[in-house]
Amino acid sequence: MRNDVRELRLADDKSQASLGADLGVSRQTINAIETGRYDPSLSLALKIARQFGRTVEEVFHVEE
Amino acid sequence: MSKSSKRLPLSITNIVLVSTFLAGAVVTAILHSWLAAPLAALGVGGLLAALYARRVGARDITRINAIEYRDERDRTLAREGFAVVGAVALGLTVLELVLAVALTDYYWIVCVQLIILCVAWGVANSIAVRKG
């Protein structure tokens, strides 16, 4: 699953560590999500989307 | 319903493990067994490892190996590691059963099994972290 977390985070001028702290997860988890190595749970995906004022579909994209 | 944000100083699993090792060390010391020292070392070592993994900025593999999970990814990766340990344990238990029937003194087999399971756990955690 692709996502725009990295682009949205950089647009907000946030580090992986500070985004992780906001969401209650580790820096490594943010890194793994951004690089596509880890697909977050639905609740974490919702938290990420809300963090950037977007919907889940706007942040995460299923590869056809 | 509000949820307390206060964290315990160690995970519940580590509290149980450290307490068990230290209680075992006390009991074996009373029985004058040589096992008291290694059990005490494991208890104190586990406590220090857990506290080290708990600090801010600890690596994910450090947290997972110390059973100090911080978020859902840590728990997912830990499950993968423990699944491998379970599979290895099943195979080893069959081997242990055969050896227990064939040998009278198989104390060392249990020790070897424990060491193999610990190594399998560490390797499986490391692979899971690299993949996810």
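qc> The mean pLDDT of chain B is 90.
qc> done
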